[in-house]
Design goal:
The complex is a heterodimer of chains A (380) and B (230). Chain A has 380 residues and is of the alpha+beta class. Chain A has 16 helices and twelve strands. Chain A is globular and about 70 Å long. Classes of the chains: A alpha+beta (380), B alpha/beta (230).
Chain lengths: 380, 230
């Protein structure tokens, strides 16, 4: 099995010949390279990306029993670094190159990634276009010609949900399932079906009655509310479930189905989205104007719009992604370059991990290159 | 003499008693074992060596390929030896269900879909992820992923899992139950679609272990004798 040398980039003496051109490309675009630790508290990754990521983590324990992990990507460590090294909202651009570690059946668990992350740019549309342009330049460096790039936009889907006549619990369910189209379809299909009547004796109870009943159950079972779900919370959701039972209105369901099918070049997709908005009388003009402006920015950046495919159902199932996403395809097991906007991440980084306590959403966009996938020989 | 077939048998508890009784009924009475000895034999089948281990260890050793076969629960195979073992024969004892159980006061949570809603809204409200105590980490991950649930964290439980919600160690649990009495006693209820797996003891063969023709023949003899009496 032939593999790239996987020494740490932190060993300054070791030359990293294959990636000199890539380093120059990122540096010339204004990004400064950061050297980051390889080992982190596992909780940082699990809290942000969820339990599903944990099975991909290489875990170990610290002396005191704290669970540690080898970094599975750079985006979370770079964001932490940004928060720990100054004001959260300041403008900054970082670049990185080095090994990341994920348990991957049938593949090496240690592989190289490079990428850039940009924080604090309020001109989001231009920042998105800059990012995609740099990704194209990166692909070109590896000899990838005319890649068929896929783009998506979770902000557009969020705007659609706001424009539709949906109850809050349904809106949340659908927003959460974005990126998992079979699951979304299942929700939409089941929406008009009346769910089975609750087995509970609390049917038709008022909020106060439910609260009292739940408090009684807490007392009877000896289970405490401390740190967990409270009687107020449980009762409120119990009442709100009536809204779930009412389902998704037929019009909303058909609009959702039509939306998820939209796919094509940015121009064609925009036309289809405008038609849908007009036919269904949806207030989508804000989101569609942003979409149009971003297309214009792509063109102004010299990006060939015909090389892009917008899929309305394309998104990442990580709740810190908030808008534009893109992906360069590969022959085999995943994208060669993946990127997107993740304005929510800074707010989600646990306060305790660095004591920065930002809890502030900061505009952030970036991409990662899977160096093990994009080119075996390194850039030309 | 060629190398023996290594057969792992539970070393303690109900499973040990039931397994010993089964072998005896099949005319394959086990010698020694008990609490002190970790190795035993079958008088009637000298080409078998018995290794006494706990049920979770048996699944792990089968997955690791250090024993040829053994008796353990389907739950343990699903947890530790998924795709590395063949379930040769169901044995009719050690029946239990692996279930998702939540606090009884959660009157709004009846289904996995409810749990998904609760998990997703938990972190914004409480500043941490919803936690699930379990010994069945892999089974839980697969089942939750199948229901599209991502916003939770597993807390590995080593002792009495059913006590985790009461002690504050976790919000809910994934654990085994046979009658549900223990869950109820701890103020927990199962979700209507929260049955992950109906388990029972099985004779299980390792796909990782290297088998000689003689060992395969011996195993076939054990299987034939046992299947005649289950």
């Amino acid at each position: 099995m032939s593999r790239r040398p996987t020494h740490s980039e932190r060993d300054k003496g070791v030359p990293t010949q294959p990636y000199l051109a890539l380093r120059a490309l990122f540096a010339d675009a204004g990004y400064s390279f950061v050297d980051l630790p390889i080992v982190y508290p596992a909780s940082v990754f699990v809290e942000l990306a969820g339990e599903d990521l944990r099975r991909q983590l290489y875990l170990t324990s610290a002396d005191g029993g704290e669970e540690l992990a080898l970094r599975p990507d750079f985006t979370i460590p770079v964001t932490q670094h940004h928060l720990a090294s100054g004001a959260a909202k300041r403008k900054a651009g970082y670049a990185y190159i080095g090994p990341v570690f994920r348990v991957r059946p049938g593949e090496s668990g240690e592989f190289m990634q490079a990428g850039v992350e940009s924080f604090g740019r309020a001109d989001r549309v231009a920042a998105d276009a800059d990012m995609l342009k740099l990704a194209f330049a990166t692909a070109a460096l590896f000899g990838v010609k005319k890649p068929a790039v896929r783009i998506g936009d979770s902000a557009l889907f969020a705007a659609l949900l706001d424009a539709l006549d949906l109850t809050p619990p349904w809106r949340e369910r659908l927003a959460r399932a974005f990126g998992d189209t079979p699951r979304l379809r299942k929700f939409i299909a089941s929406a008009n079906r009346q769910p089975p009547a609750p087995r509970s004796e609390l049917e038709d109870a008022t909020l106060e009655e439910v609260k009292t009943a739940v408090a009684g159950k807490f007392a009877a079972t000896g289970l405490g509310e401390a740190g967990g779900r409270t009687a107020d919370e449980i009762a409120a959701r119990f009442i709100a479930k009536e809204e779930l039972a009412r389902g998704i209105p037929k019009r909303a369901a058909s609009a959702l189905t039509a939306f998820l099918k939209i796919s094509g070049t940015p121009a064609k997709a925009l036309a289809a989205l405008r038609t849908l908005a007009k036919d269904e009388k949806l207030a989508l003009s804000g989101a569609l104007d942003t979409f149009a402006k971003r297309n214009d920015a792509f063109a102004a950046h010299g990006i060939r719009l015909d090389g892009l495919t917008f899929d309305a159902d394309f998104g990442r199932r990580l709740d810190y992604y908030t808008g534009f996403v893109f992906e360069f395809p590969s022959a085999a097991n995943g994208p060669t370059i993946g990127g997107g906007r993740y304005d929510r991440m800074t707010a989600l980084i646990p306060r305790s991990s660095r004591g920065t306590g930002s809890n502030v959403a900061v505009p952030a966009v970036g991409f990662a290159v899977w160096l093990d996938r994009i080119g075996k020989g390194g850039p030309k | 003499m060629s190398a023996p077939l290594i057969l792992a048998v539970p070393s303690k508890g109900r499973l040990q008693q039931d397994a010993a009784a089964l072998f005896k009924r099949a005319g394959l009475a086990l010698t020694s074992g008990g609490t002190r000895s970790y190795r035993g034999r079958i008088e009637a089948l000298p080409t078998v060596e018995i290794a006494y281990l706990s049920a979770p260890e048996i699944a792990r050793e089968i997955a690791g390929g250090s024993v040829h076969a053994g008796i353990t629960g389907r739950d343990q195979v699903a947890e530790s030896a998924d795709r590395k073992a063949d379930l040769t024969l169901a044995l009719g004892f050690g029946r239990c269900d692996v279930v998702v159980a939540v606090p009884e006061p959660w009157v709004d949570v009846e289904t996995m879909e409810d749990l998904d809603d609760v998990a997703a809204s938990f972190r914004p409200t409480h500043g941490r992820r919803l936690t699930v105590a379990t010994k069945y980490i892999n089974i839980t991950r697969r089942f939750f992923a199948g229901h599209g649930i991502a916003d939770y964290r597993i807390v590995e439980s080593l002792g009495a899992t059913e006590g985790a919600p009461a002690s504050g160690a976790a919000d809910l649990i994934v654990d085994i139950t046979s009658t549900g009495a223990t869950l109820r006693a701890n103020g927990l209820k199962t979700l209507s679609d929260g049955l992950i797996l109906a388990s029972e003891a099985h004779l299980v063969a390792s796909k990782k272990m290297r088998w000689t023709a003689d060992q395969e023949k011996t195993y076939a003899a054990v299987v034939a004798k046992l299947s005649a009496v289950v």
